[in-house]
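Re: the 217-residue chain
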Amino acid sequence: MKIIVCIKQVPDAKDVRLDPETNTLAREGVQSIMNPYDQHAVEEAVALKEQLGGEVTVLSMGPPQAEEVLKQAISCGADNGVLVSDRAFAGADTWATSYTLAKAVERIGNFDLILCGKQAIDGDTAQVGPELAMQLNIPFVTCVQKIRTASDTELVMERMMDDGYDVLAVNYPMLLTVVKNINQPRVPSLKGKMKARKAEIRVFSAEDVGADSKKSD
């Protein structure tokens, strides 16, 4: 199974403050972390790989320092990382972000499953996952709280609802967004940390993924 996990580097919620002049998040001097929901997406991907075999690629769009969260994911069991980074992406909204990620997914190649966290804590829109699925023209399920069974052809899962949950069976390829109670992310092992330290992160520019500048900013 080939799995892609979309992750994001975000400001640590403990340090978040607003710029009084722009009324936007002040990121300068604020520690960055992997988006907490994305940690659960990485864990679920690695667990599926351990069960069914295959490969996990983590994908992020951001500045060069976002390599840190890609290496963190590799230390937790992902196989390789791809960073999409270009000044042309600065200030991208959710539509531009999902478009650019879709172009990167196409550049990576064949996949069975894409996993995303339900939302990013710095934006809280929960839009990028579904928009990415729409860009790729694949089915998606949001707010997945449990994968009941996994096979080489389909996943059976529970989708969290306000009054309980739905049980869905979906064939590959698909995209899922996951909530925090789906699993408990593992602590990186020493072997994992050593692998991450040596890992070479592939970096794609806007030109590399063939992104139209009018759509990616």
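DSSP finds six helices and eleven strands in the chain.
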